[in-house]
Task: inverse folding
């Protein structure tokens, strides 16, 4: 092996020497093998804002600027711009039907402006801004190809040198490269750059590449800023097309030429990785007056290492011209395919467990361009069992791809748009240019596995007129990744995969008809019907969207250019409704409901045979579009107090035990049953393994246990392990139990709560009067009686309650139900002594909440608290209750708007709650602290 390598190197040297001798005179300039040079342009620049667009006409590119800014940065970051106000030119939709409500009037003044729909920048500016500095070009750069490279510009950049306009760029996704060769001769020069952050092309004002809803519509230059000098014949682009199965890579090289003369020269290459493996070779290439191309086929050897999420092996390829110009790229050997309804990487099945990243960077207002920031995001995602991120209507900087390559993570990038397509408007052509720039800049990264035009198109393109040829084009141009027309819709013929919303628990507009709100809870259902009806992989679009009450403790974390003024507004509204003291309780209770909903969402996906994966919206909060705290992490990727990574990763991970249970509530006359399964998409199949199970009491005592027969665990899901069957007649009831399942030989466990109630319930109701009308309640109260008013059907208001939390948020969904976020109660209160519960909604509450109503308690004394709160959304923040007690007119009154009427013999949880309420009322503990008038208690039913 050493002899072969030595012979190859000697041969390569001989060829290089011979070719150099033969082609030396043909080279456009006499060159050396010196390294290409660069000048770092970070530092102090002059700045001048141009809100009236007079800069070009007045020749600002030839003037000296008085104000300065330190670049890289945004001008907002440097304190330039205007204070946000009612007439600010926001980029992003505003729901005026919400904004015009009277509760926001105090926040529309000049001295107290606070917009509740997204994070508020300290400064806002939309228009042209000019940046200028002097540079000195060294003598050694004479005759070189010189580029100005701006890594992240927002948005359009126009460049002048010494007053002469040279170049315009408008990519949102990739670095701007301006050819300044003709102007930057040795000596001093003035570079002026106009940056314009208006809607240069209509990519959509809600697109996350530009919108104030997320990153903010900033103006500036971030990331690397530099001048690069290269040989007059230079390597313009290198793209690597791996074939992992054959352990080969095809390399396509584009050459640039500014000499005006044709020529040829030797192109050499070298491949290495961190194991010090080296391969090398060379060949003669030719170019014409405009440049040239070359193609290499590199045999990586049978022992070449492949790239995937478990083995992120990378190779470095250096391409060099004998003129001295060179280019280095990193690539990975991986084959990505659609096999039936699932993806494979290197012939191994993959299940995408993804989240969205929507350009949320609260401190800077623009995306990070350093690798460590992205490494943190990806590592946190992996800790939570994920292997995938979709970049919603934008494309991240190269640092994200570098971090994902190194960590082993799959990315879906999009061509910066969420808009109307297929009309022939400029955006149609611009999207092709933008996507090509993405492929050129990031195409070699193995982590870049999926691409789409953008999000949820409108216009003729929604039906595929634009997107069908789009998909066809990119499948031909760049087969290294999976292509789909758009995220959300449509299902275009020719898609490598569909990125659609159908396989998820709650659809836009589903209201109370969604799976969680319309059907009693079980863990048997999956999305196989939809998956089986589609011939290509389906990745669920924006699964989840379950909100949690805002965490007002986060406000102090916003120390950068964006402030959580929206949270300040919602905190004020809660205080205005006399519930400021309940903010943390609402966060915790709604947070636990959020986790319950997400667990049901993720497990349904993992149960579905043939499913390709899901993309959550999202692991982190979304601060815009009305404010959507949908994450179990905040906008800084920090944990929230109601769940930790260990709990989440039990049901969202590489290997997850699953249990198909027909229901969550049982009686002692029944036998508990569950069918156990495993979802496993690891690096390799597992050896024969058992699923060990236990049933534990709320106190942690094991009341039953067992294990399934051992079996091989392949790379798949819906792997049947065995069944659990336990007679419940001997178990204490009413009680909460937990089924815990662990897969032996793997670090994989999961658990599910269920509740067991007695078949018959005894009540001591001799002195409790149960009524269904205000008149009957008033009559009984005058006699000093104990009255239970079942008022569910009496409550008249427009609040619609479901079991789940808000979907996204009611401001953005036009007040779609459910309007509330679960319940809050004190489980130690004696009214719950015979109804085991925690402080928040859980599955035993589903039957009580389904088809129920909330009472509005706004007219009651400020300190009045219900026994069961219904947590209102943060836009309305009304004091709501579902179980209320008070002294009224000499008697003791309990009002319930829970669903406690009808078929109690078939509804064990409702029957048990009814018994617990009645027995509490019959006990000495029933001593309401608050007193109400008949008029007050009547109002809460008809608010």
Result:
């Amino acid at each position: 092996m050493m002899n072969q390598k030595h012979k190859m190197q000697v041969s390569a040297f001989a060829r290089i020497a011979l070719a150099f001798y033969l082609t030396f005179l043909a080279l456009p300039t006499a060159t050396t093998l010196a390294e290409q040079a660069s000048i770092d342009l970070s530092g102090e620049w002059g700045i001048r804002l141009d809100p009236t667009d007079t800069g070009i006409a007045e020749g600002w590119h030839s003037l000296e600027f008085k104000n300065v800014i330190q670049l890289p940065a945004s001008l907002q970051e440097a304190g330039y711009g205007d204070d946000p106000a009612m007439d600010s030119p926001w980029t992003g939709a505003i729901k005026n039907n919400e904004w015009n409500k009277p509760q926001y009037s105090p926040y529309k003044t000049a001295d107290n402006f606070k917009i509740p729909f997204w994070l508020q920048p300290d400064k806002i500016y939309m228009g042209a801004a000019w940046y200028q500095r002097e540079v000195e070009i060294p003598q050694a750069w004479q005759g070189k190809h010189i580029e100005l490279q701006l890594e992240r510009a927002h948005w359009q950049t126009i460049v002048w040198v010494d007053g002469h306009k040279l170049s315009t760029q408008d990519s949102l996704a990739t670095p701007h490269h301006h050819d300044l060769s003709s102007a930057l001769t040795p000596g001093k020069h003035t570079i002026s750059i106009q940056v314009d952050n208006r809607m240069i092309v209509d990519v959509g004002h809600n697109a996350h590449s530009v919108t104030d809803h997320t990153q903010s519509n900033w103006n500036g230059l971030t990331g690397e800023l530099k001048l690069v000098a290269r040989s007059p014949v230079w390597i313009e682009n290198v793209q690597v097309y791996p074939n992992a199965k054959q352990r080969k890579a095809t390399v396509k090289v584009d050459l640039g030429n500014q000499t005006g003369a044709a020529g040829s020269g030797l192109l050499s290459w070298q491949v290495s990785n961190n194991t010090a493996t080296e391969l090398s070779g060379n060949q003669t290439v030719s170019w014409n007056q405009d440049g040239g191309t070359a193609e290499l086929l590199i045999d990586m050897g049978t022992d070449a290492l492949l790239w995937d999420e478990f083995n992120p092996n990378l190779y470095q390829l250096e391409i060099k011209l004998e003129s001295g110009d060179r280019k280095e790229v990193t690539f990975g050997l991986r084959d990505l395919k659609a096999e039936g309804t699932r993806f494979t990487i290197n012939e191994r099945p993959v299940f995408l467990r993804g989240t969205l990243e929507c350009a949320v960077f609260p401190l800077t207002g623009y995306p990070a361009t350093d690798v460590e920031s992205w490494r943190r995001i990806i590592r946190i995602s992996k800790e939570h069992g994920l292997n995938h991120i979709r970049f919603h209507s934008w494309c991240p900087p190269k640092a994200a791809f570098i971090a994902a390559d190194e960590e082993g993570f799959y990315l879906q990038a999009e061509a910066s748009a969420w808009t109307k397509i297929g009309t022939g408007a400029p955006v149609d052509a611009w999207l092709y240019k933008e996507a090509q720039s993405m492929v050129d800049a990031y195409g070699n990264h193995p982590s870049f596995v999926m691409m789409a035009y953008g999000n949820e198109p409108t216009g003729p393109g929604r039906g595929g007129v634009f997107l069908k040829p789009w998909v066809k084009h990119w499948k031909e141009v760049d087969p290294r990744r999976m292509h789909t027309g758009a995220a959300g819709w449509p299902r275009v013929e020719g898609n490598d995969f569909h990125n659609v919303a159908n396989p998820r628990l709650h659809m836009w507009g589903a209201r109370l008809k969604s799976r969680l709100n319309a059907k009693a809870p079980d863990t048997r259902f999956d999305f196989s019907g939809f998956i089986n009806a589609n011939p290509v992989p389906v990745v669920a679009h924006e699964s989840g969207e379950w909100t949690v009450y805002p965490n007002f403790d986060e406000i102090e974390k916003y120390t950068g250019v964006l402030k959580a003024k929206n949270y300040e507004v919602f905190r004020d509204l809660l205080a205005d409704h006399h519930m400021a003291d309940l903010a943390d309780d609402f966060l915790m209770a709604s947070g636990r409901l959020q986790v319950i909903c997400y667990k049901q969402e993720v497990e349904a996906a993992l149960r579905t045979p043939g499913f390709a994966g899901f993309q959550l919206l999202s692991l982190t909060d979304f601060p815009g579009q009305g404010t959507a705290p949908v994450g179990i992490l905040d906008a800084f990727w920090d944990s929230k107090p109601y769940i930790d990574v260990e709990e989440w990763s039990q049901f969202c991970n590489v290997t997850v035990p699953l249990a198909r249970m027909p229901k969550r509530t049982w009686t002692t006359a029944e036998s508990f049953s569950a069918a156990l399964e495993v979802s496993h998409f690891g690096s390799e199949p597992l050896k024969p393994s058992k699923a060990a199970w236990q049933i534990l009491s709320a106190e942690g005592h094991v009341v039953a246990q067992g294990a399934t027969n051992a079996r091989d665990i392949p790379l798949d899901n819906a792997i049947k392990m065995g069944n659990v069957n336990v007679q419940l007649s001997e178990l204490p009831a009413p009680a909460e139990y937990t089924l815990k399942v662990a897969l032996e030989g793997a670090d994989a466990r999961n658990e599910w709560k269920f509740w067991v109630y007695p078949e018959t319930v005894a009540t001591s109701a001799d002195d409790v009067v149960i009524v269904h009308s205000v008149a009957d309640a008033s009559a009984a109260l005058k006699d000093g009686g104990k009255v239970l008013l079942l008022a569910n059907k009496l409550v008249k208001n427009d609040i619609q309650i479901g079991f789940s939390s808000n979907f996204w948020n009611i401001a953005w969904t036009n007040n779609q139900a459910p309007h509330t976020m679960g319940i809050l109660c004190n489980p130690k209160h004696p009214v719950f002594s015979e109804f085991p519960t925690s402080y928040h909604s859980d599955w035993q509450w589903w039957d009580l909440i389904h088809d129920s109503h909330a009472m509005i308690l706004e007219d009651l004394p400020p300190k009045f608290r219900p026994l069961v709160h219904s947590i209102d959304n943060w836009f309305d923040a009304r004091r709501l209750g579902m179980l209320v007690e008070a002294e009224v007119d000499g008697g003791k009154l309990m009002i319930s708007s829970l669903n406690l009427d009808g078929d109690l013999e078939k509804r064990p949880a409702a029957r048990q709650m009814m018994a617990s309420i009645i027995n509490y009322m019959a006990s000495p503990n029933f001593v309401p602290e608050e007193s109400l008038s008949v008029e007050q208690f009547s109002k809460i039913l008809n608010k």
Notes: The chain has five domains: 2-29+233-336, 37-83+122-230, 350-552+589-641, 655-757, 768-939.
